[in-house]
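User: Hi! I have a protein structure encoded as tokens and I'd like to know what sequence might fold into it. I'm fairly new to this, so please keep things simple.
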């Protein structure tokens, strides 16, 4: 495929949404989000934005001091800490002490040194984040901050600004950036990789299949990862605005070797001592890893135009959530312009156009799909689980809490504005006083 074609493809992908909306949820259901002074949800823009905490019912509204004019608030799994990105700093707020400190600052001479996508490790001891314009190649750097030691390490460069931790808090799944655009038919998409944060040992799980902002989600047992990817097995590009069939895929992950305490040697029926398993240097015994899951990797709804920037796995690992596009390809055939041929009109109509987003839930094996809700004329989306039965669906400037069965949806920001209208008022502008006024 030619370079010009790939430029068009990537351009179309980029306009599908530049960033997933950064809302986060802790294990106890506390939600971190940014609001304006009037209670409108704000992704990035707006001088009056402020980080707040609430829950799916908006029973409370807690303003996080020290995190004004910030974006991407991320609450820790236990709810103890809140992270947020300012223009040049990554800030950490302790909810107990009410103190906020900068844990990372961009270089003073780095005008493009944006800090994005912080992610807590499950044990809350580490934070993965991305610093752009880092190093001699000015590529995004994947950094890991140690909360206890207060040290930051650059883990690698040339990584997509989204990662997911494995349950052991030692390994990360990330998407590599593609090495340019090729004219030899190679896909200009990144690889899905696994890296150990201490040993920096890497393993490639899927090659050349992920858009550079593809979201990834790890199952709670750490045995599989869910991700939207380009389906190159279809050979032909589909005639839609996405140009490439995006499928939702599950890839199995390697399982780490377990250790057990030393056990006395067992005897066989004749009374002889059975051969002991190979001992570890620390005295433990090496036990073969559990058998790899036999479930095959699945592809959900092949050819369905997915929104590639977000997907999620329920806390119990029994359900998955994702977002797909609502495509206008069934409308009536348009009238032809004077001189326009019928074949040209049909080809144009076949392309259709993207109309909105649809949030869906399915079982972990990809069956039992339920469409939760649709939001038309929306470009950006995020989906995340509150608990095993409820989700947050974010579409542009709207946040909806909804059951996994699609019932009882509630727009959180509207509830917040209704309950806390007296606390969400613009700060009055003080008129200047002085001689002649």
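Assistant: Happy to help. Inverse folding works backwards from shape to sequence: for each of the 437 positions I chose a residue that suits the local structure. Here it is:
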């Amino acid at each position: 495929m030619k370079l010009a074609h790939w430029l068009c493809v990537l351009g179309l992908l980029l306009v599908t949404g530049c960033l997933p909306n950064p809302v986060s949820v802790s294990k106890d259901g506390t939600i971190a989000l940014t609001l304006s002074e009037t209670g409108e949800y704000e992704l990035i823009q707006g001088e009056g934005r402020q980080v707040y905490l609430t829950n799916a019912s908006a029973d409370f509204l807690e303003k996080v001091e020290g995190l004004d004019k910030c974006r991407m608030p991320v609450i820790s799994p236990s709810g103890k800490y809140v992270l947020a990105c300012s223009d040049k700093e990554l800030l950490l707020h302790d909810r107990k002490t009410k103190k906020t400190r900068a844990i990372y600052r961009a270089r003073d001479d780095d005008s493009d040194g944006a800090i994005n996508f912080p992610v807590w490790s499950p044990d809350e001891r580490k934070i993965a984040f991305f610093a752009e314009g880092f190093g001699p190649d000015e590529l995004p750097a994947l950094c890991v901050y140690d909360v206890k030691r207060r040290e930051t390490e650059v883990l690698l460069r040339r990584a997509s600004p989204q990662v997911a931790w494995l349950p052991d808090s030692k390994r990360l799944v990330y998407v590599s950036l593609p090495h340019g655009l090729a004219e030899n038919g190679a896909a200009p998409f990144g690889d899905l990789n696994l890296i150990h944060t201490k040993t920096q040992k890497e393993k490639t799980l899927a090659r050349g299949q992920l858009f550079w902002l593809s979201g990834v989600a790890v199952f709670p047992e750490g045995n599989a990862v869910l991700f939207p990817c380009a389906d190159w097995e279809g050979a032909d590009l589909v005639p839609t605005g996405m140009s490439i069939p995006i499928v939702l895929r599950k890839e199995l992950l390697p399982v780490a070797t377990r250790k057990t305490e030393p056990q006395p040697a067992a005897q066989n029926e004749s009374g002889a001592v059975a051969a002991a398993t190979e001992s570890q240097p620390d005295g433990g015994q090496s036990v073969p890893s559990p058998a790899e899951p036999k479930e095959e990797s699945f592809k959900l709804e092949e050819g369905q135009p997915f929104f590639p920037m977000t997907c999620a796995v329920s806390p119990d690992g029994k359900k998955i959530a994702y977002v797909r596009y609502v495509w206008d390809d069934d409308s009536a055939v348009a009238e032809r312009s004077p001189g326009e041929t019928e074949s040209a009109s049909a080809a144009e109509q076949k392309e259709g156009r993207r109309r909105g987003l649809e949030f869906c839930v399915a079982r972990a094996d990809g069956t039992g799909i339920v469409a939760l809700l649709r939001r038309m004329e929306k470009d950006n989306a995020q989906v995340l689980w509150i608990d095993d039965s409820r989700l947050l669906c974010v579409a542009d400037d709207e946040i909806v809490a909804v059951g996994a069965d699609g019932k009882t949806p509630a727009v959180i920001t509207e509830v917040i504005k209704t309950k806390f209208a007296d606390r969400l008022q613009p700060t009055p502008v003080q008129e200047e006083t002085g001689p002649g006024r």
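A useful reference point when you look it over: DSSP finds three helices and 30 strands in the chain. Feel free to ask if any position seems puzzling.
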